[in-house]
Amino acid sequence: MEKQFFDWDYSTDSDILNIHKVDKKTKGSAELGDFTVDFDDNDNVIGIEIIHAAEFFKEVSITKTQLEDIKNAKILVDTRNPKYTLIFIGLILADEIERMIPLPAPVCVC
Length: 110
Prior knowledge:
Blueprint: E1 6-11, E2 16-21, E3 28-32, E4 35-39, E5 45-51, H1 53-58, H2 64-67, E6 72-78, E7 84-92, E8 98-102, E9 107-108
Antiparallel strand pairs: 1-2, 2-5, 3-4, 4-5, 6-7, 7-8, 7-9
């Protein structure tokens, strides 16, 4: 399995978290409420933008202060169901514990 690398950025001013695969270009995007999911030429998920990030992560006990100090971030995609793609955000915070947070809705691959 190929190792994937991600860039991430959390802006405290705009309260937006961006996670994107390194060296991948976006072909298109889909908006799902406060989430924008980016796709490449092969319709693979390569990026996520979350607006109102502190509010979203508050639901899983991650504070704005913790978001300001993310050590690592990644996107995991579960494509086992041929009709839906489930997307998880993996975060490693200052305590070095990885947290896997699901996007609240599956992406239809219709």
